[in-house]
UniProtKB/TrEMBL annotation:
It catalyses: phosphocholine + CTP + H(+) = CDP-choline + diphosphate. Residues 303-314 have a biased composition (Pro residues). Its EC number is 2.7.7.15. This is choline-phosphate cytidylyltransferase. Residues 54-182 form the Cytidyltransferase-like domain. It comes from Paramormyrops kingsleyae. Belongs to the cytidylyltransferase family. CDD domains: CCT. Pathway: Phospholipid metabolism; phosphatidylcholine biosynthesis; phosphatidylcholine from phosphocholine: step 1/2; Lipid metabolism.
């Protein structure tokens, strides 16, 4: 059992290194390779080796749709070993069209996908029995849409008839053709973008007139961006002034109400100033009133009383005074 594990590549469990390249001469798997049905593979058998699943393609501009298809192929069976075949530039340009990435770039992109265990370089356009036997392939994974190419209505037809085909689902809304369409549609935008980043017109295959046009457009865009920035700053400044003005008006109103309240509290009809004035007026009136004087006010209709004598007269003196007063009265008569 230990010898079989050493002679049969196992699925990657650590992702610290890229996937290996398949040998061009033969497969590294030396374990007995009996034919499996899909039902058997889904039960996790055989236990002495992984289920070898093959998926092929161009994988130009490697994107999430590619990755999701490979993720599905990797997880078709409990112990799946995913082999990915990548067609060369020569075959791709012949049967499908020109690619953006070179074959070496596409090989490396696949090696660094986490779901891939092994990469087959220069994979065939149509799978042959010899190729399937050489790489000990159990099943082939691809979307179920018939793929017509190289004079065939479906290049996977014989794989489906042999019971080795397992379908995966396409990811809608993303494909290499969609990405290229976006670039072509917005060609001027990307040409101007790369001119700004230092690429020459020759590298971009841009004519002299278009180069000048793009550079002028870049200058105009810069001016628009500056104007937009100034407008945003001005708007921000105006908003701040409005906020400050609102705050100042609100504070002024609060202070005004506070001032008026304090004024009324002090000088109003029942204010503290009136009470204090009344208290002081009362004290002054009390101070100036007759009841507070030590002598009584004399009435103007009454004659002044004679000054009292001191010390008081004795009874004899008093009778003498009375007699003298009577004599005086008689003389007046």
């Amino acid at each position: 059992m230990e010898e079989l594990e050493h002679t049969c590549p196992q699925p990657r469990t650590r992702l610290t290194e890229p996937a290996i390249f398949a040998k061009e001469t033969s497969c590294d798997c030396r374990a007995p390779h009996e034919k499996l049905s899909i039902a058997q593979a889904r039960c996790g058998t055989p236990v002495d080796r992984p289920v070898r699943v093959y998926a092929d393609g161009i994988f130009d501009l490697f994107h999430s749709g590619h990755a999701r298809a490979l993720m599905q192929a990797k997880n078709l069976f409990p112990n799946g070993y995913l082999i990915v075949g990548v067609c060369s530039d020569e075959l791709t340009h012949k049967y499908k069209g020109f690619t953006v990435m070179t074959e070496e770039e596409r090989y490396e992109a696949l090696r660094h996908c986490r779901y891939v265990d092994e990469v087959v370089r220069d994979a065939p356009w149509t799978l042959t029995p010899d190729f399937l036997e050489k790489h000990k392939i159990d099943f082939v994974a691809h979307d179920d849409i018939p793929y017509s190419s190289a004079g065939s209505e479906d290049v996977y037809k014989h794989i489906k008839e042999a019971g080795m085909f397992v379908p995966t689902q396409r990811t809608e809304g993303i494909s290499t053709s969609d990405i290229i369409t976006r670039i072509v549609r917005d060609y001027d935008v990307y040409a101007r973008r790369n001119l700004q980043r230092g690429y020459t017109a020759k590298e971009l295959n841009v004519s002299y007139i278009n180069e000048k046009k793009y550079r002028l457009q870049n200058q105009v865009d810069k001016m628009k961006e500056k104007v937009k920035t100034v407008e945003e700053r001005s708007k921000h400044f105006v908003n701040r002034v409005e906020e400050k003005s609102h705050d100042l008006i609100q504070k002024w109103e609060e202070k005004s109400r506070e001032f008026i309240g304090n004024f009324l509290e002090l000088f109003g009809p029942d204010g503290a100033w009136k009470q204090m004035f009344q208290e002081r007026s009362g004290r002054m009136i009390q101070a100036l009133s007759p009841s507070s004087s030590p002598t009584r006010e004399r009435s103007p209709s009454r004659s002044p009383s004679p000054p009292s004598q001191w010390p008081p007269l004795s009874p004899k003196g008093a009778s003498a005074s009375i007699s003298s007063m009577s004599e005086g009265d008689d003389d007046d008569k």
